[in-house]
């Protein structure tokens, strides 16, 4: 497995507001810091500027609050990269309809035609849409801008309910922290769940957040105190191989099934059964990567049941069979359980 090269677009046509540095910092943190104990080589990161590349000793890119950026790469360096990421576009391009630089749009098309995996974070979706790369595709952006995206690009199937969209070779995410969710998803696809989980742990964030943007649109903070869910969810993760139902979990939480259902959905944006399925799939992925146990044993230990049931859920939720997943992310030095 190879991590590959990642080219991140830095826009020099306008001053970069300080709040947009968050989206820029996400791919720099995920893909730019070597993690030799997790994967070696790690990603090869380059920042590619719109306009002439800046070299050390030359003028800085103007930005608010006294911040400046330098990079020796330009838009020509997008072509040939394995992954191209547009973290955001300037506010005037979103709010006022100011045109994006033509050279950026052209470079994005050339990179895609050259086989690059195309990624947008937050309002970066406007750049991919302008390049025609989202036509006929499902895509997302920050929920505050999805209506504008849909109105401006009617050929795009805009979904404002999800954290990110994986459309095979084109990826889009919602705003801010959802960009981190997507970048960790890319690491998971490239290097496996174990590497993504360890990287997330180092960044002190969840490796995978179930649910979508819907949990944030109307209320940024749930009014329900869900701290009582922590112990029962931890217990459920430790007993995934056992039959679990809403009634069982509600009883552990000392709630009625209806109250438990509502509390969990408010806290995670997903139903209890979908939450359980996500946890069981995660357990199965970990077992496939770290052991050589038979598929039917992994189905049993993860609570997904028979080998056929495990295959069904893997194909539906992850897009590959358990056997193909194991071949892509083989266990290194895993002990075989001869009694399984």
From TrEMBL:
**GO MF term (any one):** sequence-specific DNA binding
Coiled-coil stretches, from where to where?
Answer: none
User: Keywords of this protein's UniProt record, alphabetized?
Assistant: DNA-binding, Transcription, Transcription regulation
Known SUPFAM superfamilies for this protein?
Class I glutamine amidotransferase-like (SSF52317), Homeodomain-like (SSF46689)
What InterPro entries does its record include?
Class_I_gatase-like (IPR029062), DJ-1/PfpI (IPR002818), Homeodomain-like_sf (IPR009057), HTH_AraC (IPR018060), HTH_AraC-typ_CS (IPR018062), INH-QAR (IPR052158)
Please report a single Pfam family linked to this protein. Answer: HTH_18
Q: Which residues form the HTH araC/xylS-type domain?
A: 230-328
Q: Does the keyword Protein biosynthesis apply?
A: no
**The keyword Transcription regulation appears for this protein:** yes
**Protein name, please?**
Helix-turn-helix domain-containing protein
């Amino acid at each position: 497995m190879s991590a590959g090269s990642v080219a991140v677009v830095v826009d020099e046509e306008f001053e970069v507001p300080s709040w947009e540095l968050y989206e820029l910092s996400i791919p720099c943190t995920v893909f730019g810091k070597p993690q030799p104990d997790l994967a070696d080589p790690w990603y090869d990161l380059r920042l590619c500027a719109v306009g002439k590349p800046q070299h050390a000793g030359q003028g800085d890119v103007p930005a608010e609050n006294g911040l400046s950026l330098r990079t020796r790469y330009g838009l020509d360096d997008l072509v040939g990269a394995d992954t191209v990421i547009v973290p955001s576009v300037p506010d005037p391009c979103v709010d006022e309809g100011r045109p994006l630089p033509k050279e950026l749009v052209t470079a994005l098309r050339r990179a895609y035609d050259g086989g690059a995996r195309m990624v947008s974070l937050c309002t970066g979706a406007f750049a991919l849409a302008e390049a025609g790369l989202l036509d006929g595709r499902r895509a997302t952006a920050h929920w505050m801008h999805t209506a504008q995206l849909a109105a401006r690009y009617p050929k795009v199937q805009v979904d404002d309910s999800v954290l990110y969209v994986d459309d095979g070779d084109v990826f889009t995410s919602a705003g801010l922290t959802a960009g981190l969710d997507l970048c960790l998803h890319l690491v998971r696809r490239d290097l496996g769940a174990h590497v993504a989980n360890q990287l997330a742990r180092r960044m002190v964030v969840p490796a995978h957040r179930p649910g979508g943007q819907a949990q944030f649109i109307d209320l940024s903070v749930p009014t329900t105190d869900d701290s009582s869910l922590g112990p029962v969810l931890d217990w459920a993760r430790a007993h995934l191989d056992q039959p679990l139902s809403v009634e069982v979990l509600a009883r552990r939480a000392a709630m009625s099934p209806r109250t438990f259902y509502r509390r969990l959905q408010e806290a995670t944006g997903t139903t209890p059964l979908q939450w359980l399925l996500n946890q069981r799939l995660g357990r199965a992925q970990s077992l496939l990567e770290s052991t050589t146990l038979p598929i039917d044993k992994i189905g049993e230990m993860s609570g997904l049941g028979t080998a056929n049931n495990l295959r069904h859920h893997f194909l539906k939720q992850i897009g590959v069979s358990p056997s193909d997943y194991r071949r892509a992310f083989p266990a290194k030095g895993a002990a075989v359980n001869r009694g399984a």
